User: What shape does this take?
Amino acid sequence: MKPILVFVEITAGAPRRASLEALGAARATGAETVAVFCGDASAAAACNGAQKAIALGGDSSSPDALASALADAVKNNDCGGFIAAATSAGRDLAPRVAAHLDAVLFSDCTGLEASGDQLTARRPWLAGKVIADLVSSADVFCATTRLNIFTPSEDTGPDSCDAAAITAEPKARVTSLEAKTSARLDVQEAPVVISGGRGLGDKEQFKLLEDLSTAFGNAAVGASRAVVDAGWRPHSEQVGQTGKTVSPQLYFAVGISGAIQHLAGMRTSAVIVAINKDAEAPIFKVADYGIVGDALEILPVLTKAIQAVKAEA
Amino acid sequence: MNIVACVKRVPTTDAEVKVAADGKSLDESGLSYMISFYDELALEEAVRTKETHGGEVTVLTLGPSSGTKEIRECLAKGGDRAEVLADPGWLSRDCRATAKALAAKLKDLGADLAFMGRVATDRDNAAVGPMVATYLGWACVTDAISLEIADGKGSAKRETEQGLETIEFSLPAVITCNKGLNEPRYSNLRGIMAAKKKPFEESPAELVENQASVSALAPPAPRAESRILGTGPDAVPTLIDALRNEAKVL
Assistant: This one.
């Protein structure tokens, strides 16, 4: 099999977890894995799973110019695959890279299998109502990997790093980034997601979910479409078919009845806990564990219990 | 300004979907369709851009042969004319072939701005917008939640995991639209009547072969049997025990 090039996002000098997962997915196919990233060559060794690394120099503020440099790196290294994590940046760049390579793209894959030289991508359609296995006849297999699905490799990255440059004339540039004020994780990245719906009664009760999230320490707060449409929570927290699709290790659905559009967005979570007043709510059909009752009474007790567990650890 | 709203007809989001007998495609019987949620935002933004800057809004789709009520509905909501790129195989057309067909048409139309949804809610691929822009050599902003156009240039904001990015770009451009960008209008009777007289053209899509093929399509693996652990706060210790010792996630 030809090598696979993986785009690695660097934050604070180190690869993002999502990129390490993408590297792990590429490495698991058995192909030689080439990490490519923007910035300083010193990040190469932390690109676990990569046998080769390329640091891109130059201005990385233009997605179109960066995509062009990534496509060149695929060609110059005779790669048969291009993979990025399905982050904001990865989902923005990968289709552009695929078009430069005149290749089809499989976004947000939940599986990647190699059989001989043939790669098969597994990905949800209709937000997970059906699961498709797909093959590509393109010269370069292009995919993005869903977060929290693939396992990073334990092999450390290469000692050396090649250099290449971003040189294309930019058509668009990121001119500023207003950093998030809250330190809370994004729903797609967090290992624990605690989502609330209409059943919480009003906007103020989301404080109870935030408290539970704080007790976990590695959790994000999510929301159903109903509460986002009602203006209680921002769209960036919406889980479901017209929001984000999440796959945390642990998902709490609190006061969410479980409309099919919501189930579509969280069904691939490893463990699902539902808390709802209505014992007949459809959410209890997909949940592993359910508690019937008033979330406003249950949440403070649950938060205390989680605090106790975390204090022991 | 020559503005195009690219829209896609997709199964309704409340649809239960089934796999066809071939094990590789969707069972279309009983499916009803809608314009993809985010494409409604694209249409709205196209119409608002026209209202501010003047020009014309073309509603462009690659889909089944003409006359579909969903495309007429887009004209009722402010599109000036519709162009259907007819593709009998539209349901299985891959992102590359779709992007090439749309790019060819956008070039023909001499578009300045093309709006699309952030993602179509059927394949969830979020690829066509940036692919079209790349094939055309245009600027592209994905997942826009705000947009300003002035003097042949634009500025847009998008949310990322790190925060809010501002992107400045030149025209022509493709903008993919995220929730928050606008609130789509409803059609009214006047719009519906006017839509009947608006130009509605159909031509065969310029298609390349699909590169993607489905080797299997299946319903998601069933989840393990659910267990109701109890009622009210008293059930919390049982839950903690289950999460810790059974699910091993604590």
Observations:
- Chain B touches chain A through 87 residues (CB under 8 Å).
- Residues 76 and 192 of chain B are 5 Å apart (CA to CA).
- The mean pLDDT of chain B is 95.
- Chain B has six helices and 13 strands.
